[in-house]
Amino acid sequence: MKQDTSRASKACALVALGLGFGVVAGPLYAEVRVYGSLRQAVVHSDSESSDDVRIEDVNSRFGLQGSEVLNSGLVVFGRWEWGADASVQDSSPGTRLGFVGLSGAFGSVSIGSQWSAWNGFVGGEHMNVVDEGAWHSGTERNGRTLKFAGNYRGVSFEADAVLEPEDAGRNDAVIDEFQIAVGYQVGDLGFQGALISRVGGGSGYLDGGVIAGARVSYTNDEVSLSAAIADDEGFSAGVDERSGIKLRASLTRGPNDFIAIFTTSENSETGNTPQGLSLGFQHNFSERTRVRLEMASVDPDLAGRDMTMEGGVMFRHDW
What we know:
Elements: H1 7-21, E1 31-46, E2 51-57, E3 61-69, E4 75-83, E5 94-104, E6 107-115, H2 117-123, E7 141-152, E8 155-163, E9 175-186, E10 189-198, E11 209-219, E12 223-233, E13 241-253, E14 256-267, E15 275-284, E16 289-299, E17 308-318
Antiparallel strand pairs: 1-2, 1-3, 1-17, 3-4, 4-5, 5-6, 6-7, 7-8, 8-9, 9-10, 10-11, 11-12, 12-13, 13-14, 14-15, 15-16, 16-17
């Protein structure tokens, strides 16, 4: 919901965003939005070794988002989002997103903690409890990221450079990770691809590695179908190569959504093929309030780890 703010508040917001890029131009009036999402769930988990019921927070968050059109026609924008476990007293919020950027006819450039190119084009649409296999290697968000995004004749693309931490302990690399993603939409059909390359050595990403993925989707007003594949080479500890498939289907009828996700992966190091199936039903009371039922089965196909059945109900309210 947009918040009414005074001129002084708007000016302060613009100065904060503008100084992030070293530019402030035009009248000091920024459009700032305060938003949030509270998500609480009751979950039942059952396996051979455990049977429990718990209350969980499912990625509750709150944030600030602002933008301003400059005299040059460019747009300066920024966002700061915190995540907190609302089911635990005195839990400390942690930064989920925090970036500032500049956009125009050239596309956009932004710097900070951001959604990854991999997540936006190939690896997204996660469920809460299913083992996503190879998709776990490609993070949803990355800190210390310089991102360039654009669209040329209907082809959308993103490029991320994730800088190494200050205490990485190595001098031979400034960038820990590169991500490149591209997509094209033809009517209801979408085609996306993404590539991640991580630098090895030091205390960064183990021995480095590459993960590549592709996704094909079909979406209209009621139906959404997608199939994605991923291949992970030397990307995770104890994994020489891991490949995976993710299938997703959803159907919208009035205020109700029906969702199904199936994932399977193969780990060449351990020889196991974990699988997960998740079924969800969501009723939307309004654009901001919904309840979601989810049932999932996760089979790690690994000695010493049980097959797990989970089910739960989540209540969510956005503002």
